[in-house]
Amino acid sequence: MNQLIDWIGRQSNQMGLLVGLLGLPISFLGRDYNLGRELADPLPVVLGVSQAVRGGFLYLNWRGIVWHLAFIVFLLVLLVGIIRLRLPKTRWAELDYRAAAQVAVVLNVGLVALLEIDAFVVALWYSMAGLVSVLLTRLLAGSVAKVMSR
After folding, report:
1. Helix intervals (H) in the chain
2. Of these four, 1, 52, 133, 135, which has the most CB atoms within 10 Å of its CB?
3. What is the pLDDT of residue 148?
């Protein structure tokens, strides 16, 4: 229990939870743009790979992939913006942007996955897709923070 309290007590994790909670309604309101899926739904990214392998890039659903990646970038920009507005410049380097972004994306992707999973195979697909989303988030978090710090 003390480890959970320590984890929540870290400021980067608090920022990630705040941005994740702010991103949830935006994700669900964007359902019309992503063909009936929430913006935080990572499944189009993994399904896009299987579509590209089977039918080539001609039949690839770019729309779902782009909307999900745009939502991840939106969460990252929102996170860095909130950190820059809320904390003084001397404390920016102390925060772990990757951990905060990871918390925000896991919260959004996890909630969508909990709502959509109805079979074991679907759970496997969502776990693969969620892992890809979290890895992309970790890769992009440092770059977005560097670009926004200019």
Report:
1. 2-9, 11-29, 43-55, 62-86, 97-116, 120-148
2. 133
3. 74
